[in-house]
Amino acid sequence: MDQKQLREHLLELLKGGSAHIDVKAALSSFPIEKINEKPGGSPHSAWDLLEHLRIAQWDIVEFSKDGRHKSPEWPEGYWPKMEATPEKWNEAVEKVLADLAAMSEIVADDNTDLFATIPHADGQTVLREALLVADHNAYHIGQIMLVKKMLETQ
């Protein structure tokens, strides 16, 4: 497989769809008045999951682009410390979509060698980071959709 074909597959995976709901559709359909609710003993609200997804994705994208980037402290820096307002939710959704677009641009750039080690990394490649974004997003979007379903049955 050449990098052009791999790029196309990665971009499709990042976009969502196919086997997964796409990020924009999942997040725009969530009932805003329930973003802070934790249904059925769930340890996380939709807001917790969205903000965690946003922070982690931002961290991965910035790490991929900038050797001076400093990651948040693990794990506390990757989870929200307070509940959200509807404005904070919408802001987080926009940031998730913007960072997803930024990762897609890195992958789509023909000058990006998907297999080359990122210069400031410890062996990570853009391919690995793009797969990590896609995998992490799919996992947490699935959790958000489960929280939504659980809230609908309460």
Helix content range of the residues, please?
A: 55-70%
- Following the backbone from N to C, one meets helices and strands in this order, namely HHHHH
Coarse morphology: globular
Radius of gyration based on Cα positions: 16 Å
The largest sheet, given as strand count, sense and whether it forms a barrel, is: none
Mean pLDDT: 95
Helix vs. strand class: mainly alpha
Count of extended strands: 0
Low-confidence stretches: none
Number of helices: 5
Strand content: under 5%
Question: Which helices and strands, and how do they pair?
Answer:
Layout: H1 3-15, H2 23-28, H3 46-65, H4 86-108, H5 126-152
Helix pairs in contact: 1-4, 1-5, 3-4, 3-5, 4-5
Question: How would you characterize the overall build of this protein?
Answer:
The mean pLDDT is 95. The longest helix has 27 residues, at 126-152. The chain has helices at 3-15, 23-28, 46-65, 86-108, 126-152. α3 (46-65) packs parallel to α4. It has 5 helices and no strands.
Quick structural summary:
This protein has 154 residues and is mostly helical.
Keywords, separated by commas or semicolons:
single chain; mainly alpha; 5 helices; 154 residues
